[in-house]
Design brief:
With 644 residues, the chain is mainly alpha-helical. The protein has helices spanning 3-26, 32-37, 44-54, 58-71, 80-98, 105-112, 115-148, 152-203, 213-218, 232-247, 250-258, 262-294, 297-305, 310-313, 316-324, 327-365, 371-392, 399-423, 429-452, 470-491, 497-500, 505-508, 523-531, 555-565, 612-632, and strands at residues 533-537, 540-548, 569-570, 577-580, 591-594, 600-605.
Length: 644
């Protein structure tokens, strides 16, 4: 049987398994939180494997091996080290990020600043996520082209159709579980191939004697193992150019919000960093050194044609597999690399799709959309990102370049508004918008100038002007953004208490306080205990209450009435979600959204587990305030009788 036929059979079985996972989680998708954040119930292991899997694309692995072959450890600063360091740094920010009640970063930015910044950031993130997904499709295209001589359209079709089906069915839960499976497949492929290639390099041939593994790893050019051979300035420029964009990338934040508790999120990020090191730092290093020994002409050509040698270095592993392994092994390798492509593309599809669905459609087009309507929009949004990435994959060639360009745009546009908003109380909406616009315009302009004036495989045009302009001038883009952000913030009026309270506990003390007196003998309280849904997950509890009004709710009129008679109810991120903001821990505050129908209301909160009883009492107060507001607009809301 030919390797292509074997691949088709194995791929069909694999895809059926992924679709089965999507079908399994379909029935568990009851809300937007369930779809985009897996119900906030993911363990540290799930977070770690998924975080690692989502940042290791098939194209990324091939590019890393190619860079190692030509540049040695000095190349780690362009891709490998930022991957590892970014997850470790994100782990340090978990405490601040985890307790914010956002599903997306644009939503968080509106909570902190205003609606003016939410739309632009949502568009930027959606585009950046589509560009990241392009790298996955391009990498898999290279695999299918070398292994089976297939055109790029086949890779795009396989990746696009597969993730469209299982992600739209199972949401982020399906992404997490398929990522775990895909990482195991990728790690198995990488470690076995590393062993095979090292064995081939040390076994000897007619042209070269056998050698030990230690001799192989020692037989490298002087300075090959030195990661700082490129110079400390170059290292610092690379770190400041890439890491800010990756620590503010939405997909790892989405995993933090999906984790069942703060500890799971932090341990998951650390685990993900280690798993990335295992593949990029161990397996890819062994493969690159061995391939240099097997194909010595590739590193030798670097002296003559520079980075033009990447044209042979990047696909060198694929060429070796086709030339040296059996048809069934080639088929297995193709499926393993397909897993790497999908494990990243599904993450980027959900991350970008959430911005289209929640931050554009629900926020600006239909704020009163029911949960049932939003579940449909969620799935359509994923398809939009997949379709955009598929189209772009036919016009973009360099894998690493597309990853870097997307990263640099993210770094320059919203690093300061996002991180500054979290930690600097004086940041204002005007400053955030100025930083976003200035950074994006400057960075896109510098990138365009650099790309248009750089011949293929030649040193970057801006690099030749000044080192500070390397990496498409992202340092300049970030400086421009930072100056605009801090300067305009200091020159404008401070943010309101409602915007600051969820981020700064001292500001929450300024909120209007309401007396909370609940009589446990109250018949309404007893009814509430019968119908409220409570579940402890990690250090928090998930509390839900779904009710139905007597008739269709005019959402806009009702929310205006609720906010008028009870000022503690606020809409910091649009009228689709209303919060009874009474404390700094906004995640623990009772929130209100529309349910599956236009008559349903869904109450929810995620208090600390130790405060569960207090939260139930807050639900009773929230219910009575909502019932009063509905009564004022001619509707009735009651608690049904029920049994535990």
């Amino acid at each position: 049987m030919e390797s292509y036929q074997i691949f088709l059979i194995l791929m069909a079985v694999y895809l059926l398994g992924l679709i089965g996972i999507g079908l399994y989680f379909t029935k568990r998708q009851k809300s937007v939180t369930d779809f985009w954040l897996a119900g906030r119930k993911i363990s540290a292991v799930g977070i770690g494997f998924s975080a690692a899997s989502s940042w290791m694309t098939a194209g990324g692995i091939l590019a890393v091996i190619g860079l190692y072959m030509l540049l040695g450890m000095g190349s780690i600063w362009s891709f490998v080290a930022p991957n590892i360091l970014a997850l470790l740094l994100i782990a340090l920010f978990v405490g601040k990020i985890k307790h914010l009640p956002a599903i997306t970063q644009p939503e968080l930015l509106e909570q902190r600043f205003s609606s003016a910044i939410r739309g632009p950031v949502a568009i930027i993130i959606a585009i950046v996520m589509a560009l990241f997904a392009v790298a996955d499709i391009k990498g898999f295209s290279l695999v299918l082209s070398i292994f089976f001589g297939l055109e790029p359209i086949y890779a795009a079709a396989i990746v696009a159709l597969a993730i469209s089906v299982y992600v739209t069915l199972g949401g982020f839960s399906a992404v997490i579980w398929t990522d775990m499976i895909q990482f195991i497949m990728l790690a198995t492929f990488s470690l076995i191939i590393a062993f095979v290639v090292v064995t081939a390099a040390t076994s000897g041939s007619a042209d070269a004697p056998a050698m030990t593994t230690s001799d192989l790893f020692g037989d490298v050019p002087a300075g090959w193992w030195n990661p700082f051979i490129v110079g400390i300035p170059a290292v610092l420029i690379a770190i400041f150019a890439i890491i800010p964009g990756w620590i503010t990338e939405q997909d790892p934040w989405q995993r933090i919000w999906a984790a069942k508790d703060e500890k799971s999120a932090r341990l998951g990020m650390v685990l993900g960093s280690f798993l990335i090191f295992l593949i990029f730092g161990v397996a890819c290093t062994a493969i690159a050194i061995s391939l240099n020994h097997i194909y010595p002409s590739i590193p030798a050509s670097f002296a003559d044609i520079g980075m033009g040698a990447m044209a042979e270095a990047e696909p060198a592993l694929l060429v070796y597999i086709v030339q040296s392994l059996s048809p069934i092994a080639v088929g297995l390798c193709a499926v393993g690399l397909a897993a790497a492509a999908m494990s990243s593309a599904d993450t980027f599809a959900t991350s970008g799709g959430s911005c289209i669905s929640r931050d554009i459609y629900q926020r600006y087009i239909k704020p009163d959309a029911t949960m049932k309507q939003m579940m449909t929009i969620n799935r359509i949004s994923v398809l939009i990102i997949v379709a955009l990435a598929t189209v772009l994959s036919f016009y973009i060639n360099s894998i690493i370049d597309v990853i870097h360009i997307a990263t640099f745009i993210a770094s320059a546009s919203y690093f300061f508004p996002l991180m500054g908003g979290l930690y600097w109380k004086r940041a204002t909406k005007e400053g955030a918008l100025a930083g976003l616009i200035v950074g994006a315009v400057v960075q896109i302009g510098l990138t365009a100038v650099d790309v248009m004036n750089t011949p293929p495989f030649a040193p970057a045009y801006l690099d030749g002007i000044h080192p500070i302009l390397s990496n498409h001038g992202v340092i300049v883009g970030m400086l421009a953004s930072g100056i605009a952000f801090f300067g305009v913030s200091l020159a404008t009026k401070p943010s309101s208490t409602v915007n600051l309270a969820p981020f700064f506990p001292a500001e929450a003390e300024k909120l209007e306080k309401e007396a909370m007196v609940v009589d446990e003998s109250d018949p309404e309280y007893k009814k509430l205990l019968d119908v409220i849904d409570k579940e402890i997950t990690g250090d928090r509890a998930i509390v839900k209450l779904n009710l139905e009004a007597s008739a269709t709710i005019n959402w806009d009129r009702f929310i205006n009435e609720l906010k008028t008679i009870h000022p503690s109810w606020v809409t910091p991120a649009g009228k689709d979600s209303v919060y009874r903001l009474t404390k700094a821990d906004m995640l623990a505050c009772v929130s209100l959204t529309r349910g599956d129908s236009e008559k349903e209301l869904w109450f929810a909160a995620e208090p600390m587990a130790k405060d569960l009883d207090l939260s139930v009492k807050e639900f009773l107060i929230a219910f009575k305030q909502v019932a009063e507001s509905l009564s004022n607009v001619g509707l009735l809301l009651t608690l049904p009788s029920g049994e535990n």
